[in-house]
Amino acid sequence: MIEEPALGLGFNGGSSSSNETEASLSLRIKQLMDSQPFAVLCTQGEQQPYGSLVAYSMTEDLTAVVFATPVTTRKFKLLNQNDRVALLIDNRCQHHDNMMNVRAVTATGFAKQVESDKEFKFWSRLLTVRHSNLSNFVHSPTVALFSVDIARYFHVERFQEVQQWIPQRIIPG
User: Fold this and answer.
1) Measuring CA to CA, which residue among 47, 48, 54, 108 is closest to residue 76?
2) Is residue 7 part of a domain?
3) pLDDT at position 173, please?
4) Which residues form the domain of 77?
5) Are strands 48-55 and 64-70 parallel, antiparallel or unpaired?
6) What is d(CA 19, CA 65) in angstroms, rounded to the nearest whole number?
7) pTM of the model
8) Residue from 172, 170, 166 nearest 26 by CA
């Protein structure tokens, strides 16, 4: 499944195609995501957008994110109606006195509920290693895990410098 960039098909965010620049951008994205335990999950449904705060974790190669939600929530309902999501991660709380130092990442992708036991074990471990206080919550029968396959990241710094990065899955071995 291919997703078009939100800023248009020709958008490259001003980034060069060099491997060094791409590696630097992916590192900055990873550092920001590692430093922030929560994201705003953006969903769409009932003819309007909806935002929710989630505790998340991501794979080492940044190609996927996982979070948990109770099955009785609007978030769960909307995720089952429309799999297209965005996650916003930022460090604004660390730079309330200088907007030029704020960095943000919007990750766009496709959410799916984790169903199989093998997948559940992998994703729940990834989430609870980062958020150990969520272990009982994650394993509750009234909670669902969702993984998000990330299609692309939009990285913003200095308030208006936007770069796009498309993660590549690392295949072990």
Assistant:
1) 54
2) no
3) 55
4) 19-165
5) unpaired
6) 24
7) 0.85
8) 166
| Mean model confidence pLDDT for the chain | 87
pLDDT digits (tens, 9 = 90+) for 37-86: 999 999 998 889 999 999 999 999 999 999 999 999 999 999 999 999 99
CA distances from 101 to 93, 104, 158 (A): 11, 10, 6
Q: Domain count for the chain, please give it.
A: 1
Write out pLDDT tens, residues 78-127: 999 999 999 999 887 766 677 667 789 999 999 999 999 999 999 999 99
User: 134 falls in which pLDDT band (50, 70, 90)?
Assistant: very high
% helix, strand, coil for the chain, step of 5: 30, 35, 35
Identify the CATH number of the domain in which residue 153 sits.
Answer: 2.30.110.10
For residue 29, how many other CB atoms are within 10 A of its CB?
Answer: 22
Measured in whole angstroms, the distance separating CA 154 from the mean position of its chain's CA atoms is 11
pLDDT of residue 10: 45
Which candidate, 39, 5, 1, places its Cα nearest to that of 165?
Answer: 5
Does the residue 105 lie in any domain? Answer: yes
Residue 57 counted as domain residue: yes
Which is it for strands 57-58 and 104-113: parallel, antiparallel or unpaired?
Answer: unpaired
* 3: in domain: no
